[in-house]
Specification:
This protein is of the alpha+beta class. The chain has helices at residues 2-21, 56-62, 108-127, 139-148, 178-186, 195-213, 216-219, 222-235, 244-258, 286-298, and strands spanning 24-26, 41-48, 72-80, 87-90, 96-99, 103-106, 133-137, 152-156, 160-162, 167-169, 172-176, 236-239, 263-266, 269-274, 281-284.
Length: 311
């Protein structure tokens, strides 16, 4: 019996550990004056549209930016508090903020200018929230994880077609493969709500993906379990100071959100068509955003229910 338990623990823990510690490392630690240590754990999560490493066929299928654009279609903060439920907070990529050393611009430009390091610094200086760890995912990584899980079930209220996002889906419930899921979370121009609609789908996909990844049907299927961990190992990049405790926070927080718990919303906006020298942008609602960031700074999310699924 002891041997069976030991083998089970190895099966459950060894593969995720192998995937996590084998993932790529990037420098995502902000420079300059940083907020002090804060209760709870806040992780910065990004999805990049870089096509570096993709085959010609994959580039054609996925679309997106060029080899060196390094833009971020997805910017999220996953906060695991001391008090209250985990929160998954989307930051609209067109948020108009001050980027250290670059003046005012859309927050997406911070990643283009200086990668995750400058993006994390920009978020810290505009929110006062300390970034404890970083996890990034590119096009190919996203697709490989979805495919390793055998696709993700999604229900569409209406058909979805967007040439730029390379997506053409009928209405109704269906299972999306990796390339289809990528188009689903990238589609923006054909959405009347633009980026706001897209980030809702991004959070929906994060929750559905994690829910399936930690489901008993995934864990007890050795082919799927090993394939998933192998995909995660090759897909993720993590900050050089993002350690095992951050990994546990990521797993726990995402699992809670994936099960329909916790808080999921975007940084409250006062104007989603704010005219700026950088083009139309998103201007945060300062009063409401202050409430959100204060909750993350203090590690107490009990007041965040008012923002759930509101954008």
């Amino acid at each position: 019996m002891t041997g069976v338990i030991a083998a089970l623990l190895v099966y459950l823990l060894a593969f995720p550990a192998w995937a996590w510690f084998g993932s790529a490392r990037v420098d995502a630690t902000p420079t300059g004056q940083r907020p002090g240590f804060q209760p709870g754990i806040t992780l910065l999560m990004t999805g990049s549209d870089s096509r570096v490493g993709l085959t010609t066929a994959e580039k054609s299928s996925y679309g997106g930016g060029g080899e060196g654009t390094g833009r971020t279609d997805t910017i999220m903060l996953l906060h695991v508090p001391l008090v209250g439920a985990p929160a998954l907070v989307s930051i609209p990529r067109d948020s108009y903020v001050t980027i250290p050393g670059h003046g005012k611009n859309k927050i997406n430009a911070a990643y283009a200018f200086g990668g995750p390091k400058l993006l994390a610094q920009t978020i810290e200086q505009n929110t006062g929230v300390r970034i404890d760890g970083y996890v990034g995912l590119g096009f190919d990584g996203f697709v490989s994880i979805i495919d390793a899980l055998g696709g993700i079930p999604m229900c569409l209220d209406a058909p979805m077609k967007d040439k730029d996002a390379h997506v053409d889906l009928p209405a109704g419930c269906q299972t999306l493969g990796g390339a289809e899921a990528l188009g689903y979370v990238r589609m923006r121009k054909a959405d009347p709500r633009g980026d706001i609609g897209r980030i809702e789908r991004q959070r929906e996909m994060v929750g559905a993906t994690v829910s399936k990844a930690v489901s008993p049907m995934t864990v007890i299927n050795p082919v799927r379990w090993i394939s998933l961990n192998n995909a995660v190992r090759g897909a993720l990049s993590r900050g050089t100071d993002t350690g095992p405790l951050d990994a546990l926070a990521l797993l726990y927080g995402a699992a809670v959100v994936g099960a329909g718990g916790g808080h999921t919303f975007s940084v409250p906006a006062a104007d989603t068509n704010y005219h700026t020298p950088a083009g139309d942008a998103v201007r945060w609602d300062d009063a409401k955003a202050t409430v959100v960031f204060q909750a993350l700074r203090t590690g107490n999310t009990t007041d965040l229910g008012q923002f759930d699924k509101k954008n």
